[in-house]
Write the structure tokens for this entry.
Amino acid sequence: MAISNLNTFLQEYFSAHHCEILSNHDGILQIQLNEKMDRALMNRPFYWHYIKKMGRDGDPMQLTLITNQEQTEVKGERIHFGSPRLQQILRHLRDNERFTRLFQVVNTNNNTALHPWLVVNMKLSYIGKHNKDEVFSIGLNLINGMMKIDMMEFLQQQDFQMQISDYCYTITPLIKPISGYKRILTVINQYINDQDHKWAKDSLEALQNEIELLKHFYEDSPEEEREQMDKELADLKERYHPKIRVSVINGGIFYMEQM
Amino acid sequence: MQQIDMEHDVSFIGALEEKLEQDGPFSPWSLFKMAYDAELTTVTKEFNGLRALEFLPHMDFLPHQIDTAKQVIEEMHGRAILADEVGLGKTIEAGLILKEYMIRGLVNKVLIIVPASLVNQWVKELNEKFYIPAAAYRKNYSWDQYDILVTSIDTAKRSPHREAILDIHYDFILIDEAHKIKNHNTKNYAFVRALKKKYCLLLTATPVQNQLIEIFNLVSILKPGHLGNYESFLEQYGRDRKRINQDVYLKQLVQKVMVRNTRKETSLDQAKRHIETVWLDFTPEEYEVYNELDRSFQPFASFSKITFLRELCSSREACYLSLQKFINDEENQGREILQPIVEKIGQLPHHAKAQKVVELMKEIGDEKVIIFTEYRASQLYLQWYLQQHGITSVPFRGGFKRGKKDWMKQLFKDKAQVLIATEAGGEGINLQFCNYMINYDLPWNPMRLEQRIGRIHRYGQEKDVHIYNFAIRNTLEEHIMKLLYEKIVLFEKVIGHLDDILAELNIDSFENEVKSIMNGSSSTGEIKIKLDNLAAVIQSIQEKSMQEERNYGNI
């Protein structure tokens, strides 16, 4: 789900990174960073370089993040969508949380088999004269090949951990992750092919119009200006030629009880 | 569709398999979820609309600025001329457009070309208002190293920068004060045409100054062929800028690549202008010298006479210095006649205007005030005179280096009460924190007065602005004030058509026109009649163009 409460999101983010939450009230969040997060967010490599050289532990900084814009008296960083700090945190998440392998938390006294699922979260970017993105979360059972969309929404109702629960055991995949990934891509490509892509037609039409204008402009020009025209043609294609970029947000293997 | 290019992530699955083999490291469930949520939050779900607004909650955009950004992105596909009148926030619109493209992930590599004096201001505004990490180009940078660089065209077009820049594929190019590259025969123009670019904004308050071919040249940077080719355009529309209002078709074409907001149609008038003419009298001694100078001038080139008289209306110092220079040049005739006058000037008491400034400052109280004068000598004198009366001031000139300009502006903001600027220093400094202006002497071109006022009456000004225009009775200044300013009713309301009108009369020569009237007249009466005629012409064009605008909408 998209982030709706920034304050909660930030608290969870720092907790997940094992930073102590000093206080959190009225939209003012105070955090004691640990070394790892200080290095990641505070941009002071020299400090850490010299502290380590001297064989010391160093003092990670504290952060006060204010999500309540009406708190004008308190000293700290105002944080909101688009602020450099939040951008930095989102980038940190994007760069570092790409891969996972998780086990469903199961409370049981009986031997329980966990099925491996390949989960891939993807972003489709439609780029033409206008652009938009679409996000897909797809899961593929690596035993029986069953495929599920809106996988993250489904997973969010369960709990997962890094270690396997007691009495549980995993089944070795029959389908290799790479084959599973290819199946997912086939579905995505099918989905793309099934659309009518009016946006792309519009873009191509606009491109064609612009190319005609350009050619008219250079109609009577001497040969040496052709280079300029070619450059402008390339610029036009770059701007209008429709393109779909399929990128993976993150993904991994999830071991789950048979549904 | 076969014509759509596909781009696939090819690294993900291999990297995942590698991690599985090496048994990690893996993300915990909480962070994995958060990374997904973060992506959901930042994706662009719609083809239309501005996402940047959610990202900039601290900014209060004006409706016309948001509309402009939308129009440029959705309808003009990122190539446009932003031609708002001075002070309506072209920078803000451009920043919003750039931010939107960056959020949508369509722009990484950016080049921003602005006048050298504005480089720091652009960097500051982009960083502070838009969180766009722009940097000013410095000598030891390489052009491909930084993604968002701000520089001047003089730097950019010089070797080896030129070659390095032309090698780069820019996602976004912005050119401020684009009217300076309107001539297609210049190196600047050729350079800009040669840039490799995806999106491009040209910013100018005066897209057409003299000839219609100027708009053709600007449009050809954005969309070559949009207005046909050079020959066909010249043939069809000639060089006459008036044709743009006559030809509805041409006008529509231009509107497809140009946005122009005027004060009249926007809500900027919230901060009102209070403009007051302050009439002054010279002391009898001053009038005596003034009249003596006026009378005794028959043998010299009349050009000097006008200049000397104008200077005397500004300060003893300004006049004294140039008279002295005139006398020292042995080739000049009539030096012996001037010598006694120079001596008399040396004896004069403090200038009536300077005294009035101090008087006015007492009324204004603690507020910041900007004073404009035409002469450096007057600037220095005023600074000294104000200091004598315990009023702190800093000077500002066009010739100052970039750093010094920024420093002076900061000093004015934090320490001094008054900023004394000469004309050339006016362009590009934004002083919204100040809302009092004294025009110590009036420029002879109403457009330049508008530019001065635009320094404080612009986007971001929250208070009403107070403008005081000084004029000395029974001097040249009275003619200028009465006939040039009051008659054209410039002060009643901001006149949106002013730049159009002046362009029609050829803006560059406007001041010379007034000078030549002054020079070519043998009596005060004659000056009056001629200026009267000029004012009448302006008035009639203004009425006509307002009529046209009602017919066709503003271009």
User: Anything to note?
Assistant: The first strand of chain A starts at residue 20 and ends at 25. Chain A touches chain B through 92 residues (CB under 8 Å). The CA atoms of residues 202 and 220 of chain A lie 29 Å apart. Residues 99-196+245-257 of chain A form one domain.
